[in-house]
């Protein structure tokens, strides 16, 4: 039974831990799928490459407002797909090869199999094919095994067949009709991608709004705009999935009674769940929350000394920049056990790369009101800044919340072109404690650029 100083389970953000500071330790990394994890192989990176192509495909639909008439001649789906995976797959293979064969990693053993705890600090790894299982023990473990899509308990769904974000990007041909189950990040991004490529998209959601974790004003605006582009069915219970002569069908129950949606395929996008159960972290004594997230302290250590966790297996935020931040904390704490640092989750931003883009940091107005925070609000439309005129934007806006006594920002929410980029100075201000007035007046804002949206939103705050 091989014994290690350190074993890492998962090669997403977990793969970035093994640096030169561990060269004198006996280490191993265990991965059951493609090297690089969700973000590289089936998450952030491929989706954003598809979204970029979708944004390009969607331009003719709006160009006439500038007096420019364009036509989309066609979408070569397999070329779109192969551009993405032609770039990504070699990176995953190169990552595995580096860990297995490069001399930097002579102290690293790579196990390409599935790990499952069988006792305290004891991990059984099973491999595809005939290779017998191996049991590894280690002084320290890092749990970086991420999560997986949740499949709702809909009668007939398994027999009918469905896609998730893990599979839908590798389709051999573009469907004509797609039904997306769910109304969160993944639903919003893929609905935009497929609709831009000419697919008829139906979105079926349980609740009454899309992107409902966003500030209510943003969620309402996105739901309104999405309803013009896609067939959006809200407040629907999915009773049954079934095959039809020409494809698939979902039988729904909604405010107007029973109805059926037909399509060529179903994309399930109803959230993700951490992999702590499949890894059986309980067998090594690691505690989890009710939703299955591994419980960690501020140093990212689990309930067992010497076992750390990071990313989606322990964080309900489920974001790559969070997993990367936590990996840096774990890496430091493993290398410097007497000078451990803590992770910082104060101002975690996110963006939804749909159309229009959505980006957010800090509290929503709903959260501010619910927690009794004292706050003031401002709003600025893209339509009210010069660059918004250039784009003929009539629907985007920024909404800010600030503390009236200090002027510090509490939350920022943007829906509109390049929201994921436009929001960055607000994240910076919140992270470094810059108050809204100093931020607005203490620097030049390039005219007439898109960040004037932020400048005006700051100036609109009723402070003083
Ligand atoms: C479609 C999609 C789009 C996304 N887009 C964005 C985005 O734009 N921006 C953003 O910030 N985030 C995005 N995310 C979220 C982001 O991908 C995750 O937050 C991030 O990848 C989590 O990293 P991780 O290291 O915790 O886990 P992962 O990257 O999931 O890595 C876990 C690894 O562990 C392996 N593993 C699991 N169990 C075992 C086991 N028992 N034994 C061995 N190996 C195991 C898995 O195969 C996997 O490779 C997206 C996610 C999805 C699904
Ligand atoms: N741009 C990004 O950063 C990005 C992109 C994609 C995914 N992600 C990460 O991946 C995670 C998972 O994304 P997601 O979109 O699957 O989850 P989500 O939590 O964002 O949304 C799930 C949606 O499914 C709906 N739902 C749940 N059960 C349902 C059912 N039975 N029928 C119909 N609707 C149902 C919910 O109401 C909700 O709208 C996100 O939380 C996010 O952190 C991030």
TrEMBL record:
Residues binding NAD(+), per UniProt: 182-189, 271
Keyword NADP found: yes
Record text on cofactor binding: Binds 1 FAD per subunit.
Cofactor or coenzyme needed: FAD
FAD/NAD(P)-binding domain segment(s): 4-326
Domain of life per record: Bacteria
GO molecular function: flavin adenine dinucleotide binding; mycothione reductase [NAD(P)H] activity; NAD(P)H dehydrogenase (quinone) activity
Domain Pyridine nucleotide-disulphide oxidoreductase dimerisation: 348-457
Keyword field: Disulfide bond, FAD, Flavoprotein, NAD, NADP, Nucleotide-binding, Oxidoreductase, Redox-active center
Enzyme class label: oxidoreductase
Binding residues for FAD: 48, 115, 312
Cystine pairs: 39-44
UniProt-annotated catalytic positions: 447
Family affiliation: Belongs to the class-I pyridine nucleotide-disulfide oxidoreductase family.
Name of this chain's protein: Mycothione reductase
